[in-house]
Each structure stands twice: as C-alpha cells, then as structure tokens.
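I keep forgetting this: the sequence line spells out the residues, with the fold written below as integer tokens. I include a record here:
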Amino acid sequence: MEFQSIHEPFCVSYGMGVDSTAMLVGLARMGIRPDLITFADTGGEKPETYAYLPVINAWLRSVGFPEVTVVRYEGKHGRYDTLEGNCLANETLPGIAFGGGSCADKFKTAPQNAYRRTVPLFQSAWKAGGKVVVAIGYDAGPKDCRRSEVKEDARYRYVYPLRVWGWDRERCEREIALAGLPVPPKSACFFCPSTKPSELRDLIDRHPDLADRIIAIEAAAKPKLTKIQGLWRNGCKGTRGAEKRPGSMTEFIQAHRLNRANRAA
C-alpha cells in the first residue's frame, strides 16, 4: 500500500500513545516525512501524556519531521472546550458510557479536520481534485484489528502503516525503545469509561485531584441517569477473567481510599 505520492499531501493523526508514536518511528526509518502531525487534545489527558509532548517534539526535530500541532474543540458561546466541560455543562457522561457513540468525532476528528482545512498545501490539493492522505495508528494486534477502518471520503484517503508492517503493540514498544525514545503511557482521558480497575487505582494514587474530578463528573450526571450507575455503566461481576467492579467510578474511588486509609491506620 502506498502511503504517500507526490500528488497527495501526507499527514499523521497522532494520539501521543504507543501505537501512533511507533508509527512515527517507522515512517522516519522509511524516509516518509509527514507534512503535518496533529494531536487532538480533549483537555482530559493524564499529566504523563502531556509531559510526553516536549519529548516527542525534540525527537521529531532530530529526524527532520514537523513538530506536533495541538488542536482542540472550539465550543460554542464559550460554554466548554473540553470533553470534561461538555459532561459538566450538560450533566451527562461520555457517549461510550451509555453503550454507544464515541467522543472521538466531536473532540478528536472534527478539530483535526477543521485545522487541516486551513493548511494551504491541503487546500491546493483539494482545489486540484486530489486528496490528503491521513495515517492512523491502529496496530496489527488482535484487539486493534477489530477496529473498523475509516472510510475514504471526498477529501481524505486513510492508511494504516502499522497494519501493513505487521506491528502489534509489543513490536511497537520495541521499535520506540530502539529509536531512543521512552515508551509513552497509554493515551486516554482520565475519566474514560474504558479505564481498567488497575488503571483507576494507579490514577487515584498518583493524581488524587483527577479522581476528585471523576467524582464531580458522575455527581453532575447522576440525577439524569436512569439505566446506568456511572462511567462504568452497571458494573462487572468479575467473570471471564475481568475484575469485579461497580458501575460507578465514584464508588470504586471511595472504597479504594477507605481501604488505603485502613491499611495506614
């Protein structure tokens, strides 16, 4: 599969996580230089992810790549410009907590597309009837292979280099280390409904302020919740190897803090 041609501008949708970082490493090795690298900041990434930005930018400069362009959702009437702000203002939870929908379109895809429309190189390509190639970091592992590819449209052609190279997550981590980079932390909002119990425990201990903000998000939404208990929906009974947990992250946070206090007593 051809990632880039002289007739198509080439950009990277960068998530600041393992897969998309490995994708940049592979592109650099192959001498494929992106015209633009964008990171959509939902406003809810963990501090460790934001701390990785200067690290990756220094490496990008060293290989002759453009630095990361950070884009964000621009809220209407100044109500909110982050996913967390959206949840608080509308007294709701991310769509995935309700078993459908995604925050990606509004807070990740749309801001990146909005910025791309301002880039003269891309405007020229579209005016000439061409497309812009967007590289997305889905890896070749069994979990990511279940993710659907984005359909080509009038403006964009989407490519998945990691799948073409056959790089799974473990291979991605090795390639990042071989490039002299630290392996980045998992990129996700601190209140993501897909958070595992072990990850939430780590967040509670490392960033108690973020745990408090999770409690605030669930508290704001609680009066309107009729079918789910919280960000984890209706909990997990602990079958099929999964850890038992409640549907409310608030309940989990409070129990973890109580257990920790009892151990310290």
Q: What stands out?
A: The domain at 10-178 is CATH 3.40.50.620 (Rossmann fold). The chain has two domains: 10-178, 197-264. The longest strand covers residues 36-40.
